Amino acid sequence: MRKRFKYIFVLGLLALTGILWWQVFYLEKPELKFYVLDVGQGDAIFIETPSKNQVLIDGGPDRSVLKELGEVMPFWDRNIDLVVLTHPNLDHAAGLVDVLKNYKVGMYLDAGDDYPLAEYEELKRIVSEKNIQYVRVKRGTRFTLDEEVEFLVLSPEKLVEGDPNFNSIIAKLSFGEVDFLLTGDAEKGEELKLVQNGDNLESEVLKAGHHGSKTSSNPLFLEKVSPQYALISVGRQNRYGHPASEVLNNLALAGAKIFRTDVDSRIKIESDGTDLTASSVK
Prior knowledge:
Layout: H1 2-27, E1 32-36, E2 45-48, E3 54-57, H2 64-72, E4 79-84, H3 90-102, E5 104-110, H4 118-129, E6 133-136, E7 142-146, E8 149-155, E9 170-175, E10 178-182, H5 188-197, E11 205-207, H6 219-225, E12 229-232, H7 245-253, E13 257-260, H8 261-264, E14 267-271, E15 276-280
Parallel strand pairs: 3-4, 4-5, 5-6, 10-11, 11-12, 12-13
Antiparallel strand pairs: 1-2, 1-14, 2-3, 7-8, 8-9, 9-10, 14-15
């Protein structure tokens, strides 16, 4: 009887193992994971491609980005393939100083804006000290992050003096049939330049510009993007009044479902290159 039981148990275990491997190879589709991290009044986006290549775009205003990365990355993983600074403002750059100190980074890129910011100078010092590959980007710069995953810089075409927002990197992340338009703190003038250039801006996901400030999210621009989802990275009860009610209204009129970190905390988009799902911590 005991021998028969062992025989049945082994057969059952083999069957269960076979089912699990079948699910891994035939049911689990390769997915891209896209997170807007909850870093308060600032920006930080983490992307993991289907082949597990990892990208961090901006780092927020302080060390809170480290806690967020610890939530979306395995505890033993201390490597990030690519770090991007959209522009040298404190609420985008400061957290990256701690990231570069605590993680092994393969490549760092920015637009080369020399705006005087101590944290930006520290970033450049760490990049040089650690021999991290540095790439200065502009309109037309293109990276293949993974099979079917492309990162295309749409702006800036050339740098201008003054507010770093005018030089903020705008990029389109594409995976199969799904597009993400990432606007940093670009304002209406930069948005309208892309419209005038005739760029294909249509994207399923829009990271809304400048934390939902009324200086961004021009209605004509939003019409060209036609997003299913609009994601706003913004601090709770911030002193700027972000996001502006008119921006929320414009996004709703464009047909977008809105997620915002001050209400929803960390936002997650998953896509297999054809479909996508959106969720949040709350």
